[in-house]
User: Which sequence fits this backbone?
């Protein structure tokens, strides 16, 4: 998630601590060395190699462009003279160099690692096991570790496929399952982006909403936007 989201250093719930009292809201700007383009109605409306990224506490980073590089309506960016920005959905498609970017700007300070483990992990609800085995662990900046089980280790007979889909700029499009009244509690990436290739087709559960045991030790549910 990066600098200003989740448990990042300038997110709403920082995991670590500073040796000073930081302000409640920070704003950080740096040059972004990639060419960024945007298309709307089949036409290129932004094409810039002088891009800046702007971070604000609790928000995803945003592109900022010299106003001369933008041909659609945009708003001025505070404290960056001559630069403008616009909402992600104000255009039809975004590109960095020659690759399309989906969902939101990818934070260069975000990282994903998928690691093998020998840990024995059990996900359950009120004593009913939903998955048990040695999953792969996905570590993503600013988010709790996620345990991705082999489908053979998941009680798919207890889960109901959901119509819900969500998109992630780093991992791709996820599909979901529910367990009884517990809606959209598990998900998988069938066609992940490269960052998440090693969890292709594997199934994870929200640590916040199931009981998780690692090597027999109950885990404290993290507090995130998915806790409810």
Assistant:
């Amino acid at each position: 998630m990066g600098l200003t989201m989740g448990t990042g250093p300038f997110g709403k719930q920082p995991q670590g601590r500073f040796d000073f009292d930081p302000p409640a809201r920070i704003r950080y700007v740096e040059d972004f060395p990639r060419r960024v383009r945007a298309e709307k109605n089949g036409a290129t409306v932004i094409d810039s190699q002088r891009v800046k990224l702007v971070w604000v506490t609790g928000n995803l980073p945003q592109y900022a462009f010299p106003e001369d590089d933008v041909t659609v309506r945009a708003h001025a960016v505070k404290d960056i003279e001559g630069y403008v920005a616009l909402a992600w959905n104000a255009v039809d498609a975004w590109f960095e160099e020659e690759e399309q970017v989906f969902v939101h700007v990818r934070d260069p300070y975000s990282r994903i690692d998928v690691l093998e483990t020998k840990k024995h992990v059990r996900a359950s609800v009120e004593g009913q096991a939903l998955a048990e085995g040695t999953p792969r662990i996905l570590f993503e900046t600013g988010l709790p570790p996620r345990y991705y089980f082999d489908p053979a280790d998941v009680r798919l007979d207890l889960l109901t496929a959901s119509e819900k889909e969500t998109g992630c700029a780093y991992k791709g499009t996820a599909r979901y399952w529910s367990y009884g009244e517990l809606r959209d509690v598990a998900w998988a990436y069938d066609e992940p982006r490269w960052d998440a290739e090693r969890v292709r087709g594997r199934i994870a559960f929200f640590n916040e909403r199931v009981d998780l045991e690692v090597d027999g030790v109950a885990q404290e549910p993290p507090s995130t936007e998915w806790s409810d």
Remarks:
- Residues 112-218 form a domain with the Metal Binding Protein, Guanine Nucleotide Exchange Factor; Chain A fold (CATH 2.170.150.40).
- Residues 104 and 223 are 23 Å apart (CA to CA).
- The longest strand covers residues 160-168.
